[in-house]
Amino acid sequence: MGMTILSTKILTSSQKSMLAQADIQLEDYDAIKINYLRVQIDPNFKNIIFTSQNTVKAFLKIMGPKNLKNNTYAGFCVGEKTKSALENNGIKVLEMNHYGAELAKILATKYQNESFLFLCGDKRRNEIPTFLTKHNVEFKEQIIYQNNPNPITFITHFDGILFFSPSGIASFTTKNKMRNSVAFCIGTTTASEAQKHTKKIIIAEKPTVESVLEKAVEYSESNKI
Questions:
Q1: What string of DSSP letters covers 137-182?
Q2: In this predicted model, what pLDDT tens digit does every residue of 174-217 receive, in sequence order?
Q3: Are 42 and 25 contained in the same domain?
Q4: Quick one: 169 and 201 in the same domain?
Q5: Do residue 27 and residue 49 come from a single domain?
Q6: pTM higher than 0.90, yes or no?
Q7: Do 104 and 133 touch, CB atoms closer than 8 A?
């Protein structure tokens, strides 16, 4: 019998296939529900910071196709998939980094005299605004979506649980205990939250869903569950 995994994020067909090929049994759900807000994007900014795919989705919902036609926005983003989502919708990406803290350093170094609109959720991390403020980079923060926990009780014990954010861990542990499950985490910040609940933690090589899945497959094969 293969390893059993719970993903705290609904996976795509291709992502599920990665696990199925390794004889890993999957159950998935969204530990966090996203609520997109009805707000207006400040028109005074052309340089926009996007920290996630959720930020992009919220932005696209607000703007609509008409307002993005022939747009002159410049994107500064965290993550390869965030970059792809922006470029697929006609937004030029000037800078991309896998980590918000590193992106902030680039902005403070190369774009010191520019001003930015920092789009985010209501539970955003502090690295970018703290660093920009410290280095006197002009920016405005605008919340365009909400992260709402979606706590569900699981009776099944899983060999591993896939976590993609600290808030996802907080949501899961509201109604469940880690017990002996391995926490596969997308990055160090998520892993820090996981440490409150377990010592069995494996961190992905890159902060992508696929990298988390690769770690789960490696673990399954090495342990021959």
A1: -EEEEEEEEEEEE------S--SEEEE-SHHHHHHHHHH---TT-E
A2: 999 999 999 999 999 899 999 999 999 999 999 899 999 999 99
A3: no
A4: yes
A5: no
A6: no
A7: no
